[in-house]
From TrEMBL:
Pfam families: GerE. This is HTH luxR-type domain-containing protein. It comes from the Bacteria. Keywords: DNA-binding, Transcription, Transcription regulation. Residues 461-526 form the HTH luxR-type domain.
Amino acid sequence: MHDGSSLDEFPAELRRIVGAQDWDELEDFCDRHWLALPADLAATLVAALGSIPPEVLHGRPRLVIAWLTNAHALAGPADAELRAFLRRYMEVGARMANEFDLTADVPPATLIALGTAKLVQLRGQGSLDEADELGEQLARRVDELRPLPRERSTLRPGWLALQRGLTRSLAGDLDGATALYQLAHEQARAEPLTHFAGINAAANLAMVFAHQGQQEAAARWIKTMRSYPPPMPSVAFLGTVGATIAEGWLALDRHDRDGVAAALAVTGDGTKPIEVWPFVAAMVGAAALHFGDPADGLDQLERIRISRQATAGPGIAQQVLDRARADLLIAAGQGNRALRMLRRETAAVPAWLAVPSARLHLLAGDHRQARAIAARSVWDAGTPRRDKAQLLLVHAVAALRMGDREAARGAVRMLSSVREPDEVASLATLPAAERAELLGEIELTETAAARLDHARPVFPERIDLVALTNREHRVLTELAQGHSPQEIARSLVVSVATVRSQLQSVYRKLGASNRDEAIMRTYELGLL
């Protein structure tokens, strides 16, 4: 982590600086060591900072953050302590944010400390657009204030780029996040004493690539993260959790149940107090889809959503929760509920919902529509690599069922460009009827073939969808609320005969012979 001389000299150097009351030098000293101290030296730093006059600390936010971080290091890595630390960090950030002035003539390192504290506060409130704009403004202002090479100042290399990358990740701009994480890694790599940003950036790059199904890139960044000296235990989880998420995704792609379970044992179930929780939630949903019970998976997604009310708005959080819910509803045979959720999108189906949309049409027997959605979405720039593999497989199955074997073989041939030979998860979604025919065209390692042989079916063979008109849906809603045909007619300003005719059409589509059966079937099928 440090060279030996740096650790040996730390207490004496700290005493010298505090004794001289050189607060500028103390800030720079803390910037070099704030996330890189063993417990005994963290205690020394906390004690020294605690001896500084309060009025000095109040005007030195970098010292406050160093004190808070190292005090957490002494408290331990338990979930409760992590939750308390993050809450206190955000409280300190909120207090300092009230005094934050982007135009102030302050050292760049102070601007970064204040600005990123405010940025974290905004993210915690779910204000991702505002946080992203602040990050851009900070970067421009730091460039304006950047000191001359001979001036004494540490800029916490990579820290601002890392925080901006995390903001972009949570906003769902994974390409933008990737560029910023790479910048953070390059900046932090040059300064060994402040390498936490480099570790965190490499871990988050692995996470982003694995989330999108880019296994080779994810594995490369996991290896890069491990090339750094280990971070101090109190921040090791926060700094490396992205790589653990990546390892979970790589295990899931191989259909390695134990590997996924090992990753989730570290990351938690999506309710752990970490900002990258949406990436954990995506893995939780996928694990339930392939190895668990879809109903239990849906329950867990709801627990995650409730625990994350403030930060589950637009962005990656909404994308992964909607996607996981759609997949699990289809796996549970609740096609109408899935269709109702997918139809909430007023415009074209977004890239992250293309796979469940195409699959739902496939399982409902609408092969032409399934094929059209898959063909339209598979090469969309916003479609992740993992989804491209599944869309090609949906396209191949739909083509086979339409008697177009040449198109099916063409889709399978393209599959090699978006999946690795040891990848199993996408193949496990193939319907049994078409699996044998299509697998003959797909490259598989021996281990992958063995795992695929033991993979259970992920989705039902068929799903029955009930297609109601808007008016029929409105009549059914009124009926379920206990209204009579006469009351429904008055509400809709139509004749009672029209309502009775629409009810008969609804009964026929539901396979019901009376009101009670219709209402029962309505809730069974998820139509309301």
